Amino acid sequence: MTLLELTDVSVHYGRIKAVSDLSITVNEGEIVTLIGANGAGKSTTMRAISGIRPLSAGSIRFDGEDISRLRGDLRVVRGISQAPEGRGIFPGMTVLENLDMGAYARKDRKNLQPDFDRVFELFPRLSERKTQVGGTMSGGEQQMLAIGRALMANPRLLLLDEPSMGLAPQFIQQIFRIITEINRQGTTVLLVEQNAQQALSRAHRAYVLETGQITKTGTGKELLADTSIKEAYLGVG
């Protein structure tokens, strides 16, 4: 079943067209990844889906409903949650307070304990640092917190924007293992990532974005084996 569908989406920053006539689908239960160089339009696409950037043209449908003009907070209520590029945690708040903020839009706030338990099971390090202020944590720990906070909204679709950016290699491996586990537990994932090797090896399907347009699509395995992808994104020539 198609959970998310972008059709001929264009997004401008002033006169600059950052995304042009972009069409992608994400099916329920998948990990789908967008790969591309800096400035390709990956993060702009994520901001359009989450409602941060307005569309210049095209439409976005989620679970069959047109959400193209729906406010961002109402998209969270519908089941779309994002861990943004740069993490965006609240640096002066504790781990618990940050996680609680992730559930701000939920109407069942009395029933959050299973979600706290899930986050702490996925990220034991956060459990050890419940009362630590977010701004004092390492980059890897802050990334765990950003993903955990997004999960507290109990989303059907989790948007992850550059989750491995700036992380040490051991954290990168750990983050991607956890993303796979989140998906295995039933959450659909749309992943924007510059680490093409890790992203494609975890993804069911993938799209290549270049200067705001889709230039290739296929399964993760197909694109991993593609010579032009190897040369452009995997450092193999």
Would you report the number of β strands?
10
> What are the segments in which pLDDT stays under 50 over at least 5 consecutive residues?
none
Q: What is the average per-residue confidence, as pLDDT, rounded to a whole number?
A: 94
Mind telling me the CATH class?
A: Alpha Beta
State the end-to-end distance.
38 Å
**Tell me about the biggest sheet?**
6 strands, mixed
- The CATH superfamily is known as P-loop containing nucleotide triphosphate hydrolases
Rounded to an integer in angstroms, the radius of gyration calculated over CA atoms is: 17 Å
CATH-scheme architecture: 3-Layer(aba) Sandwich
Structural class label: alpha/beta
Number of individual domains: 1
Sheet with most strands: strand arrangement = 6-7-8-3-9-10
Can you tag this structure with a few keywords?
Rossmann fold, alpha/beta, 10 strands, 237 residues, six-stranded mixed beta sheet, 37% helix, four-stranded antiparallel beta sheet, 10 helices, single chain
Folded structure, characterized:
The chain has 237 residues and is an alpha/beta fold. The chain has a single domain (2-87, 153-233), classed as Rossmann fold, CATH 3.40.50.300. 37% of the residues lie in helices and 27% in strands. It has helices at 42-50, 72-78, 95-102, 113-122, 124-128, 139-151, 169-184, 196-202, 220-224, 227-233, and strands spanning 2-13, 16-27, 31-35, 57-62, 65-66, 80-83, 157-161, 188-192, 205-210, 213-219. The strands form two sheets. It has a six-stranded mixed beta sheet with strand order 6-7-8-3-9-10, with helices on both faces. Strands 2-1-4-5 form a four-stranded antiparallel beta sheet, covered by helices on one side. The N and C termini lie far apart (38 Å). The model has no long low-confidence stretch (mean pLDDT 94).
